[in-house]
Amino acid sequence: MFFNGPRAAINFNDAAFGGDEVSRNLFVNTCRESSDHGPWNSWDRVPYITTLRTGAPSIVPKVREVHHNFLMGNYNSQEAMDTDDGSAYMRTHHNVMVYGDNGLKSDFGGHDHRWENNVVLYVGNCYGAGFASFSWGWPGYNDAFINNTCVFRTSYESTCGRDESFHIGGNRVYSQDGSLTVCGGKKNFSDWQATGHDTATTLAAWPADAALVEEVRAVLGF
Q: What does the alpha-carbon distance between residue 78 and residue 123 come to, in Å, rounded to a whole number?
């Protein structure tokens, strides 16, 4: 359990070697003296040579796995998981993340971050890869946002403007009133899907709290 910290509870700096597993933790009340990133902070700016991924020397780290955690991005967190500058080679699944401005983050050269089967509640945006509102970042190379539940306050931008290697689909997304425009507000979501984008994703109004509690219990297994 990580709680009541002045800054992030966990930092992975420069993603050296990889292969870590972070699971079955509770994160709450972090960044109490900074109100910026969130319970998790990581970055990857310097390559390291490792043999963990394939047994042969390589600067590509082994995939880091993050699963079955409960992260609450209160105290004005930017994200529950702030995978900052260049964070890569991560698989994030079966977590519950509450609050924060964004869900999945992939920016400043971030790539190869796969999110699936997470429950993301009352975030600003379901994901940000370069962020639609920012001018920097990559369009999401080899990222994935698949089979997640996302209750958002601001936006779910679907596949608009994303690189084809950013796999998005099969999500259950909820806006406050059940409506959604994408591509910078230019297209109705149902019209966008009708042209073959973001297959199997569903849209509805915010569900009742009791329904969300049951989904949280199912994902975390208690």
A: 9
Cα–Cα distance measured from residue 39 to residue 73, given in angstroms and rounded to the nearest whole number:
6
Instruction: Write the single-letter amino acid at 220.
Output: L
Residue 213 sits at the vertex; the CA angle it makes with 209 and 215, to the nearest 5 degrees, is 115
Euclidean distance between CA atoms 61 and 58, whole angstroms: 8
Q: Whole-prediction pTM value?
A: 0.92
pLDDT digit string, tens, across residues 93-149: 999 999 988 999 888 888 899 999 999 999 999 987 554 433 344 566 889 999 999
